[in-house]
Amino acid sequence: MRKRQLFHFSTTQTIMLSFLLAILAGSVLLALPVSSADGEAVSYIDALFTATTAVCVTGLVTVPTVSTWSVFGQAVILVLIQVGGLGVITILSGLLIGLHRRIGIGDRMLIQDAFNLNTLSGIVKFIRKVLIGTFVVEGVGAVLYMTVFVPEFGARGVWISVFNAVSAFCNAGMDIISEDSLCGYALDPVINIVTCLLIVFGGIGYIVWWDVVRVWKNRKKLHGRYFRSLTLHSKIALSVTGFLIFAGAAAFFVFEYDNPLTMQAYSLPEKAMAALFQSVTTRTAGFATIPQQNLTNASAILSLLLMFIGGSPVGTAGGVKTVTVAVLLVSAFAAIRNREETSLFHRNIPKHAVGKAVAVVCMSFLILFASTVLLAVCTEADALDLAYEAVSATATVGLTRNLTPALNIWGKLVIIITMYLGRVGPISLVIAFHTRKESGSIIKNPTEEISVG
């Protein structure tokens, strides 16, 4: 007779629990005196906040990363960022693959849910490609960073380069250079370009990576029809990402052109570079070359929108995702035009995908609203600053209008919970606690018309 399991977790619950355990383990390590730069233990709430922002690849910090933590503490943070960016399940699966251990069906289902894949076939190959691709891109980014940081910081520049490369690729936004992020490198083209590329590569999603590689390998057979040969997912992700980056950069360029606190003194090319960086980093990266509190109200409001949208699915970025927003907008326009089918690039989008897009945006907005209200209750701050902080935490961005360091213990707890919910995903949260199965009854409730809008 088989023993009944005392605890049975669904794949979604397991993923959520893995992130929580990583946060708690990281907080314990960061609370040790050895993790502190001055040898005195950092308060547990700040250690917990830092562990959460690292695992959730957010970047909001209550204490300066560069001056608060020792090399050991910074190494712990770096590992947490890497684990958070790739996912605990991915790291553990990679270790099993490296040890030539068999990946069981349960582990495959975990990986499928973690990456939101549609099939179990090729899971091991996918994980191997993800890990190799990640370390290659991060390695190249680190080498490029070294051309700037090694001449400036000497041997320590190697460590700074590695840390920054991992943080940028994982869209974490944490650095060990200074207390004002990358503001000191606002006019450095190497730092700007490398950081932007790492952010985009991490945020575009692994599915798009391999689809582009597939098209490139078959380019001779495609006769120039490269974009048409991509999958619908890749077309949407690339199109929306490109539009948001360049449209956002153009808007920031206009909004900040004469702002004496940001870009007024810059030359035309420097303004264009700073505007492009702001547009890219708001896609959940969290680095800043412009102090966010100095932005005009128009730029701040635009940043809120870009942060909420975030990057693309199956990547390291947060937000509700580019594909989600595209599907939602196209579905809305289809309803306006009284069309039953939602289509993009001459392909119909499944109704369940439209329903999921609606659910993701609605749940994310509810989390954002609740976080903003709770912050307003326990923190005295300007409404725009509160909204900026809440959106940044919900979408795991990491940009702040200088509010994070001033949070009291209740404000810190609100942001910790918001970052966690933003990282594991609003839909995962609902699924994890919806353990009751439908009865499958053939009896259905009657339908009745209502007025909407």
Number of strands: 2
Largest sheet: 2 strands, antiparallel
Series of secondary-structure elements, N-terminal to C-terminal: HHHHHHHHHHHHHHHEEHHHH
Strand order of the largest sheet: 1-2
Radius of gyration, Cα only, in angstroms? 22 Å
Low-confidence stretches: 1-6, 433-437
The mean pLDDT is: 86
Counting helices, strands and paired strands, the structural category is mainly alpha
Overview of the molecule:
The protein is mainly α. It has one domain (11-430). It has 19 helices and two strands. A two-stranded antiparallel ribbon has the order 1-2. The longest helix is centred in the first third of the chain and has 31 residues, at 123-153.
What's the SSE blueprint?
Elements: H1 11-30, H2 44-55, H3 65-68, H4 71-86, H5 88-98, H6 105-114, H7 123-153, H8 156-169, H9 189-204, H10 206-217, H11 219-222, H12 232-256, H13 268-281, H14 297-309, H15 322-336, E1 343-344, E2 347-348, H16 351-378, H17 383-394, H18 409-424, H19 426-433
Antiparallel strand pairs: 1-2
